[in-house]
Write a structure and sequence with these properties.
By secondary structure, the chain is an alpha+beta fold. Helices cover 55% and strands 19% of the residues. It is built from 10 helices and 7 strands. A 4-stranded antiparallel β-sheet has the order 4-5-7-6, with helices on one face. The chain has a 3-stranded antiparallel β-sheet with strand order 2-1-3. A hairpin with a 2-residue loop joins strand 4 and strand 5. Helix 1 packs parallel to helix 5, helix 3 crosses helix 5 and helix 6 packs across helix 10. The protein starts with 5 loop residues before the first strand and ends with a strand.
């Protein structure tokens, strides 16, 4: 990797701000756990700019610490429906939903193309169709920093769940497997 992994500042801030919708009062507790230099970077980086990993990871890690693993994943999951209304993703997602409707797997297929709108140099996402009711999202070549952060991969799990929810599948199932040695994660999606 030539650069440090980074996330779009607006997406990072919006994602953590949703914690107050999910659990009122949690945003203050999350911000209390973030070092001052990183808080300054988070607050002052323009929304269209990249927030470097050294600052961004605190958002996921502190959210995980405050909410706990399962609630943090559910919070990130539920935040997707609000994040897609933001300028960064609105045109991309609304266009895909308009074209594909609520056909399971079609929006998931678009995730690799949209991934770079929110993340830079974290991994190489790849869609793998399996059959009419199953597909996978492979996150290959994950940057070592993502494994150093307790929150990143759980956040990505929540994102996968949230994107799947947008498709409104019947009998949805998602398993999210993390392979640290192989530097990858795989979301297995299935529906009726």
């Amino acid at each position: 990797m030539s650069r440090s992994p980074a996330a779009r500042a607006s997406a990072a801030r919006d994602n953590v701000a949703f914690t107050d919708v999910y659990r009122p009062g949690s945003l203050r507790r999350i911000r209390e756990r973030i070092p001052e230099a990183s808080l300054t970077a988070i607050d002052e980086t323009p929304g269209i700019s990249w927030l470097e990993f050294e600052h961004d990871h605190w958002l996921m890690d502190a959210t995980l610490e405050v909410l706990g693993r399962d609630d943090a994943i559910q919070c990130w999951r539920q935040s997707i429906s609000q994040l897609i209304e933001k300028p960064l993703l609105k045109n991309f997602v609304s266009g895909a939903l308009r074209i594909f409707g609520a056909r399971p797997g079609k929006l998931i297929k678009m995730v690799p193309k949209g991934w770079t709108l929110a993340y830079r140099d974290f991994c190489a996402p790849r869609f793998v169709p399996l059959d009419d009711n199953h597909c996978e999202l492979h996150l290959d070549d994950i940057a070592p920093q993502a494994f150093e952060s307790p929150g990143y991969l759980h956040c990505w799990h929540g994102i996968c769940l949230g994107v799947f929810d947008l498709e409104k599948p019947k009998d949805p199932e998602l398993s999210f497997e993390i392979d640290r040695e192989g530097r990858r994660a795989i979301g297995h999606f299935s529906w009726s």
